[in-house]
Amino acid sequence: MKMRCLPFVLLMLFASALTPAFTQTPVIHYPGIDAALLAQANAGDAASQIQVGDSYRDGKIVEQDYSQAAVWYNKAANKGRTDAMIRLAGLYRDGADGFPRDMDQTVAWYRKAAELWDVDAQATLGVLYSMGQGVPHSDSEAYYWFYLAAKVKGPKQEKYAASRQMMGARITVDEQQDAEQRANTWVDAHPIKNASE
Q1: Which CATH architecture is the domain 33-116 placed in?
Q2: CA-CA distances (angstroms) from residue 178 to 109, 162, 185?
Q3: In this structure, how many other beta carbons lie within 10 angstroms of the beta carbon of residue 147?
Q4: Residue 80, Ramachandran bin (φ over 0: left; ψ between -120 and 50: alpha; else beta)
C-alpha cells in the first residue's frame, strides 16, 4: 500500500511546486530609456522629448504610461513641434489606461498644429467638423480646413482636395465663398513657407 501511494504523493508535491509558477503574473523587465537620450530630453531637445514620449506611449522599453508620454510631448509641443502636438491630440482623442479622453484638448492640439501649417492637422480638423466630434458639426468649417490643407503641395494634396470638394457639395455657394475668403485671408497672414518647417 505504501508503494501505491508514493507515486501519488510525488505527483502532488511536484504539482504544488509548479502551481506558483503558473499563477504568478510574469514580471516584465524593460530595458529602460537610453541615458543619453533622456539627458538630451531633459536638456530641452525637442526631438529627444518626442522620442521619450514615444517610449512611454508604446510601452516597449519602459512601462506604458500615457500620462508620462503626454508630459514629454507637451514639452516638445510648447517648442512649436507640430509632430508632438499631433501625438498629444491622439492621446487625448483615444484616452486609455487612466489617461482621460478629452475632445476639447484633442481639438485644441490639432488646431495649434493646423495654425502652424500642419496639413494633416488641418485635414483632421476638417474631418472633426464634418462629423461634429469635439466641435459643432459644420460642413462649411470642414470645407475651410480642407481648403487650407489642399493648398499645400504634397502626397495627400489630391485627397484633401477631394474632401474639400465633397464638403463643397454640402454647403451653399455663399458659404463656400465665405470659407475660401477666410482661408485666403489666413494664408496671406501665414505664408505657406511655414509648412515645411
Answers
A1: Alpha Horseshoe (1.25)
A2: 25, 19, 11
A3: 25
A4: left
